Amino acid sequence: MSVRHIVSPEQLHSMWRNGEAAVVDCRFVMGQPQAGYDAYMMEHIPGAHYLDLEKDLSAPVQEDGRGGRHPLPPAEKLADKLTELGITNASTVVAYDEQGGAMASRLWWLLTYLGHDKVFVLDGGFAAWKEAGYPTVSSAEEPVIDEARKSEPFVPHVRHEMVVTAEDIIAKKGEIEDGRVVLIDSREDARYRGITEPIDKKAGHIPGAKHWFWKANLDAEGRFRKVKEQMKRFEQLQDAEEVIVYCGSGVTACPNVLALQEIGFTNVKLYAGSWSDWISDDSRPVETNI
Description:
This protein is an alpha/beta fold and 290 residues long. The protein has helices spanning 9-17, 35-42, 75-84, 102-113, 125-131, 147-150, 166-171, 173-177, 189-193, 227-233, 253-262, 274-278; strands at residues 6-7, 22-25, 49-50, 93-96, 119-122, 163-164, 181-185, 210-211, 242-246, 268-271.
């Protein structure tokens, strides 16, 4: 099994105390784009930088909807932002949020996609850090960026094989039908089934997709479930040659990708555009289960 990429508050505190990690606050509330940054300015882990889901971790939405509601940011642009924060290819990065790991997992996935393996998600997020009694600061204490590190650029080594497009999914139709490739929809059950769609212009799911709600990765305390529990949840996937994960816009699919990799799945890919990209082309089929 590969190295785990979920760390406890205790582990992060040890890393933070010893100056061994670049900590990134990824808090963001869908529909309230300023809320995450406001929360960061009010209180955050000392030394943590802030990265915004829509300004930093996504590209602008295209007029025709292609690429979905949160298109992947250009690799060089994100690399430049990381360099600005003093994050290098040698840095160990720990991301946190207050959204069940969704936004932090997006950064985890993006950095992995850029070829950076030393990136982790804080289990339980900012709430778990505070509950453990660890220190926080307000906006009056902004992180100090090491100027020497800023002179060392973050160089992306993009792993294109981690991503699939709508065209790839269409080409794999037969493999999805016979179970060699499993397509996972990470959204709420009502959205997957097409009962309701509060965000996108069409309801339903991609034909052949199975449902694994991303929040089911968490226990009652908001922590990621233990490995044995996750293995039980995903045991139906053991014989799959490939797993493709999507959600509404490529954000909440990332916790499912993380959970699968934590339990040893290696051929897990993200449909980055997800449902909002799929329905941007009216010729693509839609399935419902009402």
